[in-house]
Amino acid sequence: MRIAPRLFAAVGFLSLACTERPAITAPRNASVAPSFDHRLTGRSRERPANGRSIFRHWTFGDEPFWTDTLHLNEVVETAVSPATALAVGLKVDAERLPPGFLGSADLKSPATTVDLLRRDAVVGIEADVTADHHIKRLGITCALCHSTVDNSVAPGIGRRLDGLPNRDLNVGAIVALSPAVPASAKAVYNSWGPGKYDAEFNRDGINSPVVIPPALGLKGVARETYTAEGPVSYWNAYVAVTQMHGQGNFADSRLGIAIKQSPDLVTPKLAALRRYQHSLQAPRAAAGSFDAAAAGRGRALFNRTCASCHIGGTGTDNNNGKLHAPDETGVDGAYAARTANKAYRTTPLRGLAQHAPYFHDGSAATLADVVAHYNRARHLGLSDAQQRDLVEFLKGL
Fold it and tell me: Which of 57, 105, 201, 365 has its CA 20 to 30 A from that of 24?
């Protein structure tokens, strides 16, 4: 059994350019306005070489796109209150707020959102806020999609949890707020819904969004991207340049992409970013969250029916170079057909219970749905009781 691809690779982000945007190429040594990441303040004042700082705060110089092209700084300043921001899935880092801030703040005022950005409290968004509280520049980071919070203060407000996907984030709805996005593209973005994103849409114009995957538990996996185009640094570069619209280099002849920009704000950060991602461990299953006796029986079933693909400590046969055609596991092949390898790798099963829904399109809401799917598609012949035992085993991973 293979928990089928949530096809968005390890650090997949935002294909938010308008469909009318030119092909993904750039002139050699193209120059873009420098990132303001060099003026990080407060908790974010860590060495740029620090992987955690890059993951949380480095925009790769993407501010010109989000500010000058989409004008989201103007949208946020005039129309996005904290209540609206939380409603579309943005998260607030409570550790960046002074005591009593939320109790006295007007959560229906966009001015409060500007103040949150000034305090570097909105997860995944970096903003240059002027002394008179206007958003001069705005950009996004890896953490926008691949961090969440523990809700310890309120829903959407708490301590950061890096690596877990933000399945509440309605990326499409956020981008559709931009006055620069044509109506036809707005309709596409608004169709995605929370927790989904299409990292190929601005390249091929096809709309088949996938669920945002976790960016943790990746250590030891040879080709971390879900369709195995390359390791995590390949995907980080693809996303930073073609999705976040940062300033850097990315080339893949299989996709017809050749982008070279100077200075390159992406490539020098990839090694430290990869190290940080590989340091993020999958969360352990909480005590009492699964039936241990049933999980023991489920382990034997897993070893009999699933371990030929989910092999060894990595949980994926892709370390041996294996890929799977969509019809092998009965999953939709539309997304794979748009990628370089046209097939899916076996997904490692780390911390599964922490990031439902499953399958690339989110069509399996629960692990029980996943097991039932594979029981049908792979003709496993599991009884209802055996399926329940297998689910308990998967909950404990």
Answer: 57
